[in-house]
Design a protein that fits this description.
Layout lengths: L1 H15 L11 H7 L12 H30 L4 E5 L6 H4 L7 E6 L1 H14 L6 E6 L6 H7 L8 E5 L8 H13 L6 E5 L5 H6 L19 H6 L3 E6 L1 H7 L17 E6 L1
Parallel strand pairs: 1-2, 1-4, 2-3, 4-5
Antiparallel strand pairs: 5-7, 6-7
Helix pairs in contact: 1-2, 1-3
Length: about 270
């Protein structure tokens, strides 16, 4: 599944080339090129497929900016521990300005972390904080591996699960949230992206085997704020459409269905 992370890097590279880019990711092009996804390939002839691709790309851009803002807010509040779950080709350790003393843990399996390390060496990239990689499968004892890497559960942490929950079955999502809660001191923050209701039917039903959408298995619960309250978090949900408009990048198509709770979640540990 880590090849999907290279696809996300390609989207971020394309966004970074825009004059009005919502963020700049200097390493994204290098990740995409090393993964064979640069320059961009021509869009498929299927118009419906082209629209789906554009919609997914837009969602990646908006969620990236949303979580960038959340991380800046967490840093401003004094949080100095960051954990990226399923980090993939995330380059926030290198492209964002971090306060002194920030420790950023990237948790993922060995394959994407090794691929990423080879690109970072070639690019001579230098992290702007203390960056610690934790090679472990999230289906295993990742809290133990995180503790061994130096994470301090007594200090507030900002957790990021970007583009991750949609690939996990419901029981795995619950376990992940429970584990995060057990490692979160009061004042911790969390940023989640949760697949909106109906997204699997709209995008995954006719997805090509092996594509990202073909591996989607989990959608947002009917009440994500309530679900997180049960895990000890005060959460706020935002829709992609709402955030896109706020960033000056309104979605060009009207909603085809009644939009429910938003799948971009920010939360504070109570």
């Amino acid at each position: 599944m880590w090849a999907t992370a290279v696809g996300v890097a390609r989207v971020r590279a394309l966004e970074s080339e825009r004059k009005n880019a919502l963020f700049h990711d200097p390493l994204a092009q290098a990740f995409a090129a090393a993964g064979g996804l640069w320059p961009s390939s021509p869009p498929p002839g299927d118009e419906a497929a082209r629209r789906r691709r554009a919609a997914v790309s837009s969602s990646i851009v908006i969620r990236t900016r949303f979580l960038d803002d959340l991380l800046r807010q967490a840093s401003a509040s004094g949080v100095r521990q960051v954990v990226l779950l399923g980090a993939g080709m995330d380059s926030r350790a290198f492209r964002m300005d971090w306060p002194e003393g920030t420790r950023l843990f990237e948790v993922d399996t060995a394959a994407p972390l090794d691929f990423k390390a080879s690109v970072l060496r070639r690019e001579r990239a230098v992290a702007r904080c203390e960056r610690i990689t934790v090679a472990v499968d999230l289906r295993e004892d990742w809290p133990g591996a995180l503790a061994a890497a130096g994470h301090d559960p007594a200090s507030p942490t900002v957790w990021i699960a970007e583009g991750l929950l949609i690939y996990l079955p419901e029981d795995a999502v619950e376990l992940l949230l429970a584990r995060i809660g057990a490692l979160s001191a009061a004042g911790s923050r969390m940023g989640l992206t949760w697949g909106s209701r109906g997204v699997i039917e709209r995008f995954g039903a006719d997805a090509e085997p092996g594509s990202a959408a073909s591996m989607w298995v989990s959608e947002m619960p009917d009440d994500p704020v309530g679900r997180l309250a049960g895990h000890g978090w005060a959460a706020v949900g935002h829709t992609l459409r709402e955030r896109a408009a706020a960033y000056g990048r309104p979605l060009g198509t009207p909603p085809r269905y009644e939009e429910g709770p938003g799948g971009l979640i920010s939360a504070v540990r109570r």
